[in-house]
Design a protein that fits this description.
The chain is of the alpha+beta class and 274 residues long. It has helices spanning 3-6, 8-27, 31-60, 71-77, and strands spanning 64-65, 68-69, 86-98, 101-112, 117-125, 136-141, 155-157, 163-174, 179-188, 196-204, 210-219, 227-233, 236-243, 247-249, 252-262, 265-273. The strands form four sheets. A seven-stranded mixed β-sheet has the order 6-9-4-3-11-15-14, with no helix packed on it.
């Protein structure tokens, strides 16, 4: 991992040594010895704490499914944000794959639980880096713009990268018990591969449950035989089921995954070969 983790035993022994020096300094009324021991002990404790932080971070950076690193999820886990102000009642995720391109649609219906909220933060995660300046992304506040005549460009929060956080603002701030319906559309060009690939669907809301969650994954060209569904529990992916295609939509073949009354904080990975 890092030098901090490689030298964890040095930090443990240093803390013990520093503590002994400090105690001896106090017993012998040697101020210098006590101060030096206290400094060594404090620094050692600091590095021990840092070790456990780095260890936890490293665990989140090693997500694998079927011997494939789930890089987009690894990046996202470093900057996970949880929304505590909104209750999501219905969540709809749609992914359309054509060759190497991916079109994403997010639709969330719910209500505000706090005094005020100005928007929703979305995480956009990809194995490849697509700069935000050229990212094809647009949103709509459907309560105030049901005909989608006033598109909203989300704002980038923090650093740009493979995993980016964007905030889609409402036309006006929400107040307690105010309902909302928000739509976000994203086009990621060149992010999908033939052979083994995956899509991640992540929910990061504090308030449970989500009454209805529906995910639709559609293919325009080469079709996989099935999609394996994994739920991530404490950084460990667990296969829960497989999806067969259920629906034809114009020139698309679609797989559908549905849940009722689900946890508002979870990650689902859809793994497939085409």
């Amino acid at each position: 991992m890092t030098n901090i983790i490689d030298n964890k035993y040095f930090a443990f022994y240093s803390s013990f040594f520093g503590l002994i020096l400090g105690i001896l300094g106090l017993i012998q009324s040697n101020n210098i010895l006590a101060i030096v021991g206290s400094i060594i002990f404090t620094l050692a404790i600091f590095f021990i704490i840092l070790y456990f932080i780095e260890k936890r971070k490293f665990k989140y950076l090693n997500m694998e499914i079927e011997n494939r690193r789930i890089e987009s999820l690894n990046f996202a886990n470093l900057r996970r944000l949880t929304n505590k102000s909104l209750l999501i009642k219905k969540a709809y995720h749609k992914y359309v794959i054509k060759n190497s391109d991916l079109k994403i649609t997010f639709l969330y219906d719910g209500q505000c639980l706090t005094g005020s909220e100005t928007g929703i933060v979305f995480s956009i995660d990809s194995d490849i880096f697509i700069p935000y300046d050229i990212l094809d992304i647009i949103g709509y506040d459907l309560i105030n713009d049901s005909k989608k005549q006033n598109p909203i460009k989300p704002k980038l929060l923090g650093k740009d990268g493979n995993s980016k956080k964007v905030k889609l603002f409402f036309f006006e701030p929400l107040f307690k018990n105010k309902e909302f319906s928000i739509l976000l559309k994203i086009n990621l060009h060149g992010c999908m591969n033939f052979g083994h690939d995956y899509i991640t669907a992540t929910l990061s809301f504090h308030n449970n449950p989500i009454s209805e969650l529906k995910t639709k994954i559609c293919f325009i060209d080469k079709l996989p035989k099935q999609i394996d569904v994994y739920k991530v529990k404490d950084t460990k992916p667990v296969r829960v089921k497989s999806l067969k295609y259920e629906e034809k939509e114009k020139n698309k073949i679609c797989f559908i995954d549905k849940y009722n009354n689900v946890d508002a904080q979870q990650t689902i990975v859809y793994s497939f070969n085409r």
